[in-house]
Prior knowledge:
The complex is a heterodimer. By secondary structure, chain A is of the alpha/beta class. Chain A has helices at residues 84-96, 111-121, 150-163, 180-188, 227-238, 254-262, 273-276, 280-295, 318-321; strands at residues 11-13, 17-19, 23-25, 47-49, 66-69, 72-75, 102-106, 129-133, 137-138, 144-145, 168-172, 193-196, 200-202, 219-222, 245-248, 267-270. In chain A, strand 1 and strand 2 (17-19) form a beta hairpin. In chain A, helix 3 runs parallel beside helix 4 (180-188). Chain A is globular and about 55 Å long. Chain B is of the alpha/beta class. Chain B has 2 domains: 2-95, Translation factors (Elongation Factor Tu (Ef-tu), domain 3, Beta Barrel), CATH 2.40.30.10; 107-210 and 232-249, Nucleotide-binding domain of ferredoxin-NADP reductase (FNR) module (Rossmann fold, 3-Layer(aba) Sandwich). Chain B is built from 5 helices and 16 strands. Chain B has helices spanning 26-29, 75-81, 117-129, 193-210, 238-243, and strands at 2-15, 18-24, 37-41, 52-55, 58-60, 65-71, 88-95, 107-113, 133-140, 157-162, 169-170, 186-190, 246-249, 265-267, 273-275, 282-284. In chain B, the strands form 3 sheets. Chain B has a 7-stranded antiparallel sheet. Chain B has a 7-stranded mixed sheet with strand order 11-10-9-8-12-13-16, with helices on both faces. A two-stranded antiparallel sheet of chain B has the order 14-15. The chains are: A alpha/beta, B alpha/beta. Chain A binds chain B through residues 28-31, 35-36, 38-39, 51, 59-68, 70-73, 75, 77, 80, 215, 223-224, 272-273, 275-279, and chain B through 1-3, 41, 44, 47-51, 76, 90, 92, 252-266, 271-273, 278, 294.
Amino acid sequence: MIGPAAVDLSLELPRGLRLDNPILVASGTFGYGVEYSEVVDIQRLGAICCKGTTLHARVGNRPPRVTETPAGMLNSIGLQNPGVDAVVRKYGPTWQGWHVPVIVNVAGESIDDYVEVAKRLDGVPGVAGIELNISCPNVGKGGLQFAIDAEAAGAVTAAVRRATELPLLVKLSPNVADIRPIARAIEAAGADAISAINTLSGIAVAPGRRRPLLGNVYGGLSGPAIKPVALRIVYEVAQVVDIPIIAIGGVAELGDVLDYLAVGAVAVQVGTVLFADPTLPVRLIDELADECRRLGLDSYLPLVGTALPKRSSPRSASSAKGVEYRP
Amino acid sequence: MQLVAAELVESREILPGQWLQAFHAPALTVGSRAGQFVHIRPGDFSGLILRRPFSFNTVDRTTGVITIHFRAVGRGTAWFTRLRPGDRVDMLGPLGRPFEVDPRSRHLLLIAGGLGIAGVRMLVDDALRAGREVTLLFGAASAVEVYPSNLLPDEVEYVVATDDGSLGHSGYVTDLVPAYEAWADQAFACGPAPMLATLARLAAGRSARLGVARLGPKPGRGAGRSGGAARAALPGSPAARRKSFLQVSMEQNMGCAVGACLGCVVMDTSGVPQRVCREGPVFASDELDWEGGW
């Protein structure tokens, strides 16, 4: 064997959120963690991001809700969930007994919604952190998504920051012209980490071609098809913020994990591909450790940011954040 | 639920565009029941990233062989048709809730529309093995799509309807049901949504037409939690399905098939979406909202 036998894959995120490894499972693809437990050793995962949770129960969208697309899928679940109180009551005790941290994904239609959900999760045993899904229409702003407006994204992040001591991740939407001001606003508002990206907006046409396929018309595209987009966004965000970035977008093999690390992510979430291959996340943990061993590393952190442009000044310097995109 | 590598034993086109495939998967023959399904992963070279759900068509616990029956309708199913004996596929199963036969039921009425036969085919074998009488009503567009009777046990009464009248009754398979509803103790159906909705309406009126609910809940023990009695059947429970005259196997676009993604829901009568992969695919017909109330 070359290099150190023991590889430390652990990762320390702000506010004491310690992960055994940087392989997480993405919200919406892993339910509440219990669903796959018969075929996956879920306690080995870096963390589980649970299904999007709202203040009140939501029925979700009319089916069909999912359809396969080339190297991907569209979904329009519509945030079906039983509401935060029911989630805490039903799964909190289970999560408390788990080794794997559970990060609750939170969605809302107003800043008050997000704040109230965060308050109800604060201090709940078994809840290790919050991931804000800000790709939701902001009813107070005429339905404009929080995620596409730097001011709104910052405002909701700041409000939730004040409401909870829990580690706070904010999940970026790719459906924007320039992600950088939004990422900066989220960082300035006190987020502990950024997860990127949520799904890309898309549609499919029904057989017979008389109407769109999905019951909700619009869906979110995920899977390997979106990886180049997610890579680009992580690459851009990593150059303008100092908080950790957790990459999401079509992770299907170790090479994808290494690519995301190279453009500045410190961890990844596996999502759509685990529908086909539920054992993939756990396998990636082992493969990442093997890769570190092969490279003679005792940690994977030297693999982070290797493909980013060289900085002339330390990362925390304000000049580094001001770097503008030049095509 | 487990992940197994299943080896293709036999693959043949039994009807135009319809395939019957047999896989050696002994682990999946243990504990699997009629109405349940497997979620099979297509090869990854083609950009197909979702598994495909298939009902257990038949299960042979002696040989360890299961069969699936499907129509080649897209790139995924086309991929399956190119499998050759000896090829291995990754199967997740058994999944979902099965049909529930009341121990008192002697006469089972099975209704299949087209490929829906795959959803009830295993129940034919199970019921006959348990000494029950089975009538299978089968509907298709025309004679060329009629499920071959030589793939059914001799003991089953097989009645065919075709939309164009080219074989058997001319019309819908649902037309045949009233003639059997007094004979049948329970009915089990799989097929297109309009067929199932028609059957659900027929089932809802059956007690009134026959003047007796032969295996229905006793008076004063209505469905639902309000009954209070410990033995009352909770909605969605096996007992609720067992007590229902008609059980239906539902189909919906599916993602994970383990209940995680909430992709494959149908609406129940209380306005709560139910997962076809987890609470289903078999439901009591009176549990579901057939008006599509979303």
